[in-house]
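Example record

One chain of 49 residues, shown exactly as stored in the release files.
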Amino acid sequence: MSDDLDDAVAQFLSDYNSAISEYEKGYVDADATLSVIDAHIDELREARE
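Predicted structure tokens for this chain:
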């Protein structure tokens, strides 16, 4: 993996964990959480290209 992809994966995992944590605490609903995760997946895909 390139450094950019490594960084993108690390950032994705951090952002994913934050989104799930906020959901579990009741700060956001499931739809909002999935929307955030989808956006981060798009960023990860872009880094892969």
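Notes: The mean pLDDT is 90.
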